[in-house]
Amino acid sequence: NFPPVMALTMDGLPLSHSDHARALFTAGSRLIQLRMKNAAPDVWLSTAREVVTICHDAGILCTINDSVDIAIASDADGVHLGSLDEEWTAARARLSPDKILGGTVNNADTARRATASHVLDYVGIGPFRFTTTKQKLAPVLGLEGITALLPLLNGIPAWAIGGIQPADLPSLRRAHLAGIAVSSSLYTNNQVAANHAAFTAAWSDLQSI
Questions:
Q1: Is 194 helix (H, G, I), strand (E, B) or coil?
Q2: Which end of the chain is more exposed for a tag (fewer CB within 10 A), N or C?
Q3: How does DSSP classify residue 206?
Q4: Is residue 61 helix, strand or coil?
Q5: Total-model pTM
Q6: Could you tell me if 25 and 54 are in contact, meaning their C-beta atoms sit under 8 angstroms apart?
Q7: What is the pLDDT of residues 4-39, one digit of tens each?
Q8: How many CB atoms are closer than 10 A to CB 127?
Q9: For the chain, how big is the Rg over CA atoms in Å?
């Protein structure tokens, strides 16, 4: 069982990815995904090893975005692959059976591929709304679009992705999402602890469901 809030590190901020990881676990995160885009492989790997060590010392999960090679070399707990990254079944064959494998679902075709692969532990489904953290953003789905794809997943747990705010969480829970993945909103005003608390509180507010 994964925690409902999947916290992603983020490029382009004054703090390093390692600093993000420290701030996130201090804020209470139990699952951190290292998301580095366009980094040189050696920098990516050294950062991944540092972030994995930080997470494992804190007793929390760490996954790597985009690269099975980096995930294996850094001894991360798993990897998240988009539809343009390494093919999911090939990735699963390279990963230890106990490692986490997640994939991105943007439309009916990728949802059906996720189900047919029989190798994914979860999917990230979206984008929920427009977000600047993705350079090649798939068409925005919104709540209605995400909800329409869920039956195609045949029970694979789905985390909503893309521009999500705490106020969105009650409707996403009602739609039977397993959780949300969030990056930029965690770092607003450099208030990681308060922002993470807002997401976890909104998800846990059973009175709003």
A1: helix
A2: N
A3: G
A4: strand
A5: 0.92
A6: yes
A7: 999 999 999 999 999 999 999 999 999 999 999 989
A8: 24
A9: 16
User: What CA–CA distance (Å, rounded) separates 35 from 103?
Assistant: 14
Q: What's the burial of 13, exposed, middle or buried (CB within 10 Å: 0-12/13-18/19+)?
A: middle
In this structure, are residues 148 and 109 in contact, taking their beta carbons and an 8 Å threshold? Answer: no
Residue 103 and residue 37: Cα distance in Å, rounded? Answer: 17
* Helix spans in 5-107 (H): 17-26, 41-57, 68-73, 88-94
Structure tokens belonging to residue 3: 């925690």
CA distances from 69 to 13, 81, 93, 151 (A): 25, 12, 12, 32
Q: 71 is written with which tokens?
A: 């995930």
Residue environment code for 33-60, b if the CB has 16+ CB neighbours within 10 A, otherwise e: bbbbeeeeeeebbebbbbbbebbeebeb
Rounded distance, CA 103 to CA 87, Å? 10
Say how far apart CA 12 and CA 16 lie, in whole Å. 9
Structure tokens at 133: 């953290």
Q: What angle do CA 96, 61, 181 make, to 5 degrees?
A: 105
pLDDT in tens, 69-79: 999 999 999 99
The pair of structure tokens assigned to 196 is 């993470």
